[in-house]
Amino acid sequence: RFKNWVDNTNIFQYLGIHYVDIIYFATNAKPIRVLATAQKNYLLRMGINNYDAIQAVIQWQMQSGNTFTSSFFTNWIDPECTSAMSEQSIKVIGTTGRYEADQKKRGIFIVDDGVIEEPNPDFCMSYGLKKGEISYKGYGIDSVVQFLEDISNIEQGRIKVEELEGKRPTFNVSIIPTMVIEAVNKSLSENGQWVELL
To answer: Could you give the count of Cα atoms lying within 13 Å of 149 in the half-sphere of its Cβ?
Structure first.
């Protein structure tokens, strides 16, 4: 299945961009320049012409004029025996403090003969209410339900699209991450040169 769609993307576009979104959302900073390097080894040996890993550095400028730098390390490759479908983390180091979050550590750790799992119960779990009835809960379901409610409210005239600006991700918000994706790809094609955005 991976081979069917991987030619249309890379690991930074597929995963790293979500962390660009987080930084942009949390700081409202604009990316000034981008540098990216990458490796092609394992996937190439498997007949897939795509990067195993991409590393990107982004310099940002805040509205105050202050700048900061973010580093991204993204990778398709993980051992078959890994304990979760993906391993993601974010670390923010500031002037007077630090924030760290690990997407994989959800508080559940299962060990069975030959199997170690760290499932994410908060994304989507099924609950049986009565025999034959199943209900789904979790932030994966909640986000889809919210999207459908928003569409219904727009269609029914209860809200306007403009009212969702700043409350929901919109096409306007996607401009900055799209610029970063393009800059990463350009930097990769130019052997890791800085790409200026502003």
So the answer is: 8
Rounded CA-CA distance 141/125 in Å is: 9
- In whole angstroms, how far apart are CA 61 and each of 27, 58, 128, 160, 181? 9, 10, 49, 31, 17
Q: What angle do CA 165, 171, 174 make, to 5 degrees?
A: 105
Q: For the chain, which residues score pLDDT lower than 50?
A: none
pTM for this predicted structure: 0.77
6's CB contacts (< 8 A; 6+ apart) are 48, 50
> How does DSSP assign 116-168, residue by residue?
EE---TTT-EEEESSTT-EEEESHHHHHHHHHHHHHHHHHTTSS-GGGGBTTB
Give the model confidence (pLDDT) of 103-127 as tens digits.
766 667 777 777 777 777 777 777 7
Query: What pLDDT is recorded for position 99?
Result: 84
Q: What pLDDT, on the 0 to 100 scale, is given for residue 59?
A: 97
Which residue in 102, 79, 100 sits closest to 91, CA to CA?
100
State the average pLDDT for the chain.
86
Residue 43: strand, helix, or coil: helix
Q: If 0-12 CB within 10 Å is exposed, 13-18 middle and 19+ buried, where does residue 177 land?
A: buried
